[in-house]
Amino acid sequence: MFAAIETSFDETGLAICDAAGGICQSLLASQVEAHAPYRGVVPELAARTHLSDLPQMWRQLDPQWRTNLAAIGVTAGPGLPGSLLAGLNFASGLALSAGCPLYPLNHLEGHIFSPFMPIALDEPSTKEPGPHSLPALPFPHLALIISGGHTELFLVNSLTDIQLLGQTLDDAVGELLDKVSALLGLGYPGGARLEQLARSADVLDAEARYDGPLTLPVPMRTSGDLNFSYSGLKTAVVRLVRSAEAAGQPLDASAQAELAAALFSVICDSLWLKLAEALNQHKVEILTVSGGVAINGFVRARLRAAGRQAGVDVRFPQPRHCLDNAEMMAWLLCLHVAAGIRANVADAWSQWLPGEHRR
Question: How far apart are CA 35 and CA 85, in angstroms?
């Protein structure tokens, strides 16, 4: 059995899986309500909550899953420093107690490989860890991560060869949605609230295309690279809302819904614009889209339709695996063990040491 811990941001995750990646038990503690009054995540509060939640969650696991562990994995970055340290400290203690290796895992790699996870909470596999236990992953493929903190595009050549092709130069796409949601008084987090609002307008077609009176700029349309940018689009939305208020005609619910629909259409335009160029440069058959914004129904509809037209298989994780979770990290741990990648926890700790003490 393998155990994985995820504490990169504001979700505390703990999962146990078998050698084939089947999830035996999974626990997730959300901090959304705790951070909602602040309209964003408070790092110190997130770290303290992880420290409180992890021991309680460990005790909630079925004893049969938490004994005889072959390996433990923990998210070592990227993420909030205090949150990462909370998970790393707890995982180090578990590994020492269990006498098993501790694998520091990359949070973004967890998202990248989440679309290839086993479908459900399966019965534990009787196979021993090894390459024969897991299906072969398709390489190379393109991987887009879209979330509140990340908008990045990768070429994935192998489990250990992942090349960054483009990234946001400012705001991530999920950050844009949170800021627009706050601007419209909808609260935090904003993605789901804005999607619900946009659907009430009924002005988007089956492929999430908007053809209405509002005009918003498609970011980075002529940049000539694979990078993204969403601060300019945010500014355009702010100006539209503030202009209406200054004219004494603040946006009512109907106008806000129209704006949300136009915003999602432009976001989909901007994402596919870069993906299409990446597909021209790299002849792959599979494109994955993961991260919190990958839950969005408009994004899924547009990118799937565009993928079909381009002859590429666009894959998304299950919705529960789009947000931060320990299940995808347990899956990543399985892949590392099966590939014979050795645990090197010293690397995880070295980033917290003064420069002269790093290896």
Answer: 20
